[in-house]
Each structure stands twice: as structure tokens, then as C-alpha cells.
Amino acid sequence: MGERMDPSVITDLMARALENRDILSIAAGFTDNSILPKQLVREAVLALTEADAPNGILQYGLNQGKLGLREEIRQWLEGFPGERGGCIGTDQLIVSNGSQQSLYLAMQTLCDPGDIVLVERPSYFVFLEMLKGLGIEAVGMPSLPDGRIDLEGTAGLFDDLKYSGKWNRVKALYLIGYFANPSSRCVPEADKVELAKLMDEKDLFVPVLEDAAYRDLYFKEPYPARSIFSLEAYDPLPKLFLGTFTKPFATGMKVGYGVCSDAHWLEKMLSTKGHHDFGTSHFSQGIIEYVLKQGLYESYLQHQRKHYSEKADMMDEALEATGIRDLGWAWDKPEGGLLMWLRGPEHIDTRIGQPFCETCIDRGVLYVPGDLSFTGNEPDNCVRLSYGALESDRLVEASRRFGEVAKTFS
Ligand SMILES: Cc1ncc(COP(=O)(O)O)c(C=O)c1O
Hints:
By secondary structure, the chain is an alpha/beta fold. The chain folds into 2 domains: about 10-30 and about 300-410, Alpha-Beta Complex (Aspartate Aminotransferase, domain 1); about 40-295, Aspartate Aminotransferase, domain 2, CATH 3.40.640. It has helices at about 10-20, 40-50, 65-80, 100-110, 125-135, 150-165, 190-200, 265-275, 280-295, 295-320, 355-360, 390-410; strands at about 25, 95, 115-120, 135-140, 170-175, 210, 240-245, 255-260, 330, 340-345, 365, 370, 380-385. Helix 7 links the parallel strand 5 and strand 6.
């Protein structure tokens, strides 16, 4: 096995946690089993397998993805407020085994070992692990105290990369635009635009990836920032926009997608996808296409959004009740997604193996240590919690357990 392929730290943590059967996990970004769309999936399966339904649905499909589903996705994306009509074509869409596969295909086709990808601070830790596995260096763009990208600092970073001779190794920039993992923050439209202008000013002409895995799971209204596909400032740049049906719909069906603006890059991704699997499950795609086509997705989402919004409130209230905010812990209540990001007092060290983490495991609660989401110079006092999977009473209990440990250490 190559040296870069270290076993995942988080897998180790999960394995240890499973040894303790009473442990409550607010670590994994799983969705809530109690509201997964059994009814809708059953309805779709019945329709797709009726005696006179075409047999093709049980056959291999196109490597690029089912055309009908791509058309539904195109319409869905264009339906977000302010999105530019006609800016996405079905021929630009690739349906993948989760958006994770599209991310992997993008990195495999853009980068060689030793290349650099610019990321936010913090960023999606599984993506950071993937980069490490591919021998790609992730470089974090500085952030402001409120979590936004520090554009002035990023200009300085670009200059440093130039002077240190690393500039030509920068091959892509990765953003999580909506209710991000782990921070649950969105990138304001003005910041997206300024970032593209900065890239232009500094002659950084590299593909931009916008990951929108949680975009559909807003609690009150869609986040009012257009995607990079609709922003003129990004017109000159190659782009990949990533979305998924795993978080907002049927998680285990693992259907996600990418929209790629560059035909040559897309062709490379498709040929690599052919090496992986010749195409995402045709049957799963058929189910999602059916749900979208019948207009059932949006009504299902309304239920999901309310459910997760209530769960976010529960976690927030349970944490507040422990009094840790007065002891230096800070967090924002999420406005969408499945995750909550907490910053502890500076002396707290939440890393795996440290007393804080060990105590949480002993007290029966599991979280994701924040340092995994950074790329060097990481603060060690952050954690990512998820209110996605646990049912209400266990969620409240897990949050309480976490808060009690945080209180002891603060
Ligand atoms: C930010 C982000 N992007 C992509 C993914 C991959 O999701 P999936 O492959 O299930 O579509 C995840 C999953 O947790 C995520 O948090």
C-alpha cells in the first residue's frame, strides 16, 4: 500500500466508539432514518417496475448519467432565485455515485502528485484526506474572525505562493458555498465575486469547484447567493458545481452530480468514471428522476427542512443549557444543513487522543475534532457536531454530555 494511504483517523475513532455500545455519535454527517423517503421511493419503484414499464431501467445506463435525470437536475438548479437561465446544459452534467465521486474524478483529472489545491479554512475533512491520498497539497486561504474568506490575506497568500515558486503547482480552488461542512456557513455572493476578481488580478486561471452538498437543506429560505455558474465574474474560469441527493433525499442511494463548464475536463472525468464503474446505478437514478418529475421532491424537502431546523434548535438549546457559552465556547445557530461548528476557549485541545476527546468517549459522546478540517497551523479548540442522525431525546442527551465535558475542561 502506498505510504500516502494512511488509515482514516475518523474510521479509527468510529471503530473505538463502536466498542462502547452506549455511545451517542454526533460525529458522522448521517441523515435521520426516521424521515428518509420510504413512501416516495416505494411509489417510484412500483411505477418503474410495472409490467408495462420499459425494462431499460434495470439495464446499464449511460456513463454520463440518465438523460431524463440530467434534465430534471438542470431545471432544479435553474429554479434557484436569480440563477441565470440557460447557463447549464444537460451535456455538462455528470451523475455520479454521490458528489464524492465527482470530487474525486475532478481531482484525479486536474492534479498530479505535488500539485496544490486552495481550500477554505476550515474545509471538508474527507476532501482534505482525499487530497492527501492523491499526494496533492491543500493550502488554506486565510479566514476572518467571522469565518468569511479573508480576501486581503488571500491576496498575500497568492503573492507568497508566487515568490516561493509554488504558483505553477496551484491547480484548483475549492469552495463550499452553502451551509458548509464543517462550519455551516455560506459564502456571500459579494465574497464569491471578489474572490474571482482577485484570481483575475493575480492571473490565477485555474478551475473553481463549488460544492453545494447542503444547498437544498435551507431552513427558511434559499441562501441568496447565486452559484458560480451564474456569476459573470466566473465566466472566464473553468468551473465544476457539485450537488447531491444524498443529504436532502435518499442518502443510501448515493446519487450526486457535477456540472462542468469545460468540455475537455468533463471528457476526462467521464473516461475516468468509465474506469471506476461505467455509470452510476441506473435504477437509483430512475427513482430520483421520477420523484423530481412528479414534483414530489420540493414537497418532501419542505418536511425535511422543518425537521432539521427543529433538531438544530434542540442541539443549540441543549448546549446553551450547559452554560458553556459563558465559559468561552462560541457557535452560530445553523440556518441550513446538518452541522454545527463550535469554537472552544484557546487552551482546549479537542484532537484525537487528547484528554478532552478521551473524556468525551468515556462519557459516551463522539464528535469530529476540528483540527481535521484545517491544513496546517490548525487551531485545536474546535469541534464539528451533527444533529442529523440521532432522534430527539438521544440528540439532546448527546449534546448535554458534550456540554458537560466542555464545561469541565473550560
Ligand atoms: C461538503 C460535502 N461535499 C460532498 C459530500 C459527499 O456527499 P455524497 O457523496 O453523499 O453526495 C459531503 C458528505 O458529507 C459533504 O459534506
